[in-house]
Structure formats: C-alpha cells, structure tokens
Amino acid sequence: MSIFSPVLCMLGRHSPRRRKVEWNGRTYTGHCRHCGKSIERKSHRNWRLTAE
Ligand SMILES: [Zn+2]
C-alpha cells in the first residue's frame, strides 16, 4: 500500500491503473493505483471497491 493519496481512498475516491483496466462483460474492473484494492467502475470517473 502506498503512503501517498490513501486519503482519497478513505473517502471512497479510488483511481484505477488505466493500463490494467478490464471489461468483464458487465463493468470495468481494475486495481486502485493508490491502495491496490480491487475496484469497479460505477459511472464515469466513479470507481468503488468491488463487492466480494
Ligand atoms: Zn484506492
């Protein structure tokens, strides 16, 4: 986990590593560039943690 920018993650504002973003047939999924957690795109520029 990076020590940089996790504040945004704590606020639920995750950002994907764009090269790693994948389409799974339902939504875009990827990993947060800041905290490394699995995230999925809810809407434009709105990424949330993947519910598992
Ligand atoms: Zn994050």
Q: Treating each run of at least 4 consecutive H or I residues as one helix, how many helices?
A: 1
* Distance linking N and C termini: 20 Å
Strand content: 25-35%
Shape: globular
Structural class: mainly beta
Q: Encode the helix/strand succession as letters.
A: HEEEE
Largest sheet: 4 strands, antiparallel
Give the C-alpha Rg.
Answer: 10 Å
Number of domains: 1
Helix amount, in percent?
Answer: under 10%
Strands across the major sheet, in which order?
1-2-3-4
The small molecules bound here are: zinc ion
Average pLDDT works out at 89
Low-confidence stretches: none
* Number of E-state strands: 4
Verbal overview:
With 52 residues, the protein is mostly beta strands. It has one domain (6-49). 10% of the residues lie in helices and 31% in strands. It contains 1 helix and 4 strands. It has one helix at 6-10; strands at 22-23, 28-31, 38-43, 46-49. It has a 4-stranded antiparallel sheet with strand order 1-2-3-4, with no helix packed on it. The protein is globular. The mean pLDDT is 89. The site of zinc ion has 6 residues, from loops.
